[in-house]
Design brief:
The complex is a heterodimer. Chain A is mainly α. Chain A has three domains: 153 residues, no CATH class; 227 residues, MetI-like fold (Orthogonal Bundle); 185 residues, MetI-like fold (Orthogonal Bundle). Chain A contains 33 helices and six strands. The N and C termini of chain A lie far apart (60 Å). Chain B is of the alpha/beta class. In chain B, helix 7 crosses helix 8. The termini of chain B are far apart. Classes of the chains: A mainly alpha, B alpha/beta. Chains A and B meet through helix 19, helix 25 and helix 31 of A and helix 1, strand 1, helix 2, strand 2 and helix 3 of B. Chain B: One of its GO terms (cellular component) is outer membrane-bounded periplasmic space. Chain B: GO terms for molecular function: thiamine binding; thiamine pyrophosphate binding. Chain B: It comes from Paracoccus lutimaris. Chain B: Keywords: Signal.
Amino acid sequence: MNADNRRLDWILGGAIAALLILPWYKIRGGFFSFGWIGDLFTKSDLWPATVQVAIGRWQLWPVLALILGALWLRHARPSGADRGRWLVWLGAAGLVWLIAEGLAIGTRGWNWGLLESMFGEVAGQPAFGAGAVILAVAFTCLISFGAAERGALKGDAFILTSISMLILLVATFVFYPILSIFTGAFQDIDGAFTTEGVARNIVDPKIWSLSCLIGGPSCGVAWRTLFLALCTATATTGLGLAFALVATRTAFPFKKSLRLLTILPIITPPFVVGLSLIMLLGRTGTLTQVIEGATGLEFGRWIYGLPGIWLAQVLSFTPISFLVLIGVVEGISPSMEEASQTLRAGRWRTFRMVSLPLMAPGLANAFLIGFIESMADFGNPLVLGGSGGVLSTEIFFSVVGAQNDPSRAAVLAAILLCFTLSAFLAQRMWLSGKNFATVGGKGDGGMHAGLPRRLAWPVITIVTVWSIFTLVVYTMILFGGFVKLWGLDNSLTLEHYAHAFGITWGEDGLRWTGVAWNSFWTTMLIALIAAPLTAAVGLLTGWLIARQKFPGKAVFEFVLMMSFAIPGTVIGISYIMAFNLPPIQMTGTALILIMCFVFRNMPVGVRGSIAAMAQLDGSLDEASLTLGANSGRTLRRVILPLLRPAITAALVYSFVRAITSISAVIFLVSAKYNMATAYIVGLVENGQYGVAIAYSSVLIVVMIIVIGGFQMLVGERRLRRRSNPPAAKEATA
Amino acid sequence: MKFRTAAIAAGAALAVPAVAANAAELNMICSAEVAICEKLVGAFEASHSDISVNMVRLSSGEAYAKVRAEGRNPQTDLWWGGTGDPQLQAAAEGLTAEYKSEHLAELHDWAVEQAETSGYRTVGVYSGALGWGYNTDIFTKKGLKEPTCWSDLLDPALKGEIQIADPNSSGTAYTALATLVQLMGEDEAMDYLKKLGSNVAQYTKSGSAPVKAAARGEAGLGIVFMHDAIGQTVEGFPIKVVAPCEGTGYEVGSMSIIEGAQNPDEAKVFYDWALTTDAQNLMPEAGSYQVQSNKAAVASEHTPDFSKLKLIDYDFAKYGSAETRKALLARWDAEVGGRAAE
């Protein structure tokens, strides 16, 4: 039996089992609670597809017929291009039918009046369940297996299946929700089509006004956001590069703690940096008072508005750019720099002409991420926003605020998308057609050149000053959790911690009496499930984009970046709009949170692995393939070990973001699955800063522990032996 | 497939008794302060051991957005608290269900009126009046006199000291806008707000943020609901609460059952319970300084006596309606704008 037949057997077996055993429709209590088995004989919605067909759900006949057709093909025809073409057609027809019948027939019959008048009444159906999901996967596999038999992409079924699965997932979890929100823009409350809202908002001077350039009061929110994002991206890229250089190429004494320090801001829940900046630099802030007392100047309220948001964003996003850049700076082959120095170029010239250009992909990625993060940032503008606000908060308030205008939200979201996507395009155009490979299979045993002196001093100074500032901000945060009432009653207390995380030992054993436990455990569970999924999907996608050629790749990459470019607020709303009704219904479950995190945070894993893979010479893959490994094995044994920094970054980032993100989550939390940040926002709104900060501090500590765990689990990438002596020395000392 | 069958069988054996023992569920959104929400849920679960409550706290705007987005397939059963306007709007759109509680007769007139306005799709649970809180430290230091009337707020000496929320985003600020319109007439109110604008340092997004800023000395005075200001005073901040001498408006915090809820019976049990004296007496304990809707409930000692306030006859039906709101906000945008004197 050849490989073509074997994998077909697997997938057809799974599909038939799903049709015969698994419930076709969604189960209200959740599939894995297994509570439904008790009701199996009484409730018809729990029955598998074959029984559903028998009791009159005619819309499932084509599904059965298509699977039977595939079975017949498997046994009657030999594997080859001819059968392959048929399989592709069968799979595609199956998917199309699933989508069509799922969208057309809702809980109460036909979703569109037109169909009802054409075909008459039909019984409503619940959302897709386990059976339907497995069938969708099976149809997708049929497409890719068929394509493999036809010889597409050299007949590599692994790559084909990965691609088609990713397309299916991205279409479901990125494209479909976005589509829902844009159709929402053209609907009024009862679903009728209207262009009134969009027409009114798209020309609004509050968005587009440029009057501040000619002395007017303020510019439109679109221009403010763009200006802010450019400033933030420039500052974070510069600072991130400075930190990366100091960490790898100087004799700076506190490198290890430097790394920890740069991790701190990303593991900080939103609002907290903003809050502590207010406590520090606000009108009555500690630092403001000290400076005003010493100089007699009056600073006033400068922190509220763009300067404050900028400062908070630079504090928050510098570490992300550091994480992106450190891998790139480390990965530059020392032999290039050595060659330059052998040719008698000075250190400065080497840095400027050799090292810096080789860092270009990293710098571009760091800039892009800083730009997009700033555009999508929600927590900091919410706290420090001043009167104007930025696009992401405007979107939020146009949905939840008193004006309640979904079409305004859609228009603002579209503007935001245009900005982020143009940044993405510009970055691609700049980098396309250049080669940055420096990690090759060739022996390569040099050491990185130190920084030229004229660069080293300013860079070290900047890093030191910034580190001290960060430290002060964090001391404020930690301290705030122990202070009774900030700024008023500075006596120390543990009551905030006791309130949030109290445990009592009662007669019926341990009781978690603290108010925070519930949301805390939910958050941990969801973050720990989401992180590895995000990393896996992100790295696989990155590998496909960087290493494989397939039709539609550019579009694929584009749609992926879109989910990152859309602010969480919009994602949250679009997820509720898309996944509250059949065919896919996930609101109120943990799954919607997990999926939201996976597809929202995946792009960072993708960018990271693309940047890292740009440095791995393609000859490594070719060598592995030539030696007889297939593409899956090459990915696992050659690429993945070399991508360890990227894997760590993806794991850390997705875990942390699952815990700290707020804007999307605030719509997706339910009474049963409440997340820590949503809870903290409530505390902040209520002015309970003490408990909010105590809770945040606990989250920070937990994240540090878990990040350490990830780092140990994945390990470090070892490129060359001689770069290790300093570490070895530290170990022995 | 053997494994799966075995797993299902094992799951069935484990799950059946678990289901039988399962308590009924109630999913509720709470739009008041977290402390009150938790207090109510805790007390309810203690007295109704057969119902377990899943509670999530969302601001009233977020809650409305969620209820509306989930409209055709609600995941929430009950919505307690928060400004009345979004609940009225939800009622007008048919997102909430009609229900007449047996306790309706025990309630204050304004709570019953709220129910009548909405066609019994919502009911008042508490009420609070609009006013402001000012930071006594800053006022003493700058030698400013106590602002007791709306007109005092136009004093040029207060330049850059006042905060109020943006009515586009905050229900509190919209109540203030509607109050001034009802107090002065629309043109005069817009004129007043324009003049006030030159004293306003920042139009915040959240309704209660101004007085929190004032409490921490970031601003001198915040125009908010009085119970929010009292909360800061009780916490120990140097905030003095003022009820404007010309008269003022108020909000009615409401409660609704969601139309098409999955647990309507449990929702009704909670609804009835939340209107009782016992339940409403819990609110002051949790640091809520509103007036409860049950006539027999005892308010906190800090709560301003409604009978001594000069309350306007707030027209909730008119100023809660979508058309009036849109027109007023459009006018506010054009004439006052969210532009502070920064």
